[in-house]
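Appendix B. Worked example

We walk through a single record from start to finish. Start with the input: the chain for CDGSH iron sulfur domain 3, Marmota marmota marmota, length 130.
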Amino acid sequence: HGFPRPPLSTDFFLFPHVFCLYQRRDISSWLDRWFPKAPAKSVVALKTPIKVNLVAGKTYRWCVCGRSKKQPFCDGSHFFQRTGLSPLKFKAQETRTVALCTCKATQRPPYCDGTHRSEQVQKAEVGSPL
Ligand code: FES
Ligand code: FES
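Next comes the structure step. The output line below is what the pipeline stores for this chain.
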């Protein structure tokens, strides 16, 4: 019949530090996965700007990462694809129609500044970084 079995493996009592280390590694790889240290590159969503009617006083979130399916605005893909990037929040000062950048290479975000006409953007593949 023998002795009753200990509730945990005897290894745990002999080498508890090994288990703690194992657990810590587990948590840090989980953190790396969800919070990457270096942000991903923006990708070219489209190669022409999108005209939108902005309403004075309203706040918009322009997609920085290029992965949104609701260009030129953010749909949360930057988070779900763990890019480490965030959208650009801006408030419209007046009601007007503007051309917002979708190639993500503009020097004047969120507005199109014509950079999409450059050879670099035109040669790039949609969905890839420059
Ligand atoms: Fe691109 Fe949010 S989906 S910034
Ligand atoms: Fe990006 Fe025009 S669409 S600069």
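Two observations about the output. Residues 63-65, 67-68, 74-78, 85, 87 surround FE2/S2 (inorganic) cluster (ligand 1) (CB under 6 Å). Residues 50-123 form one domain.
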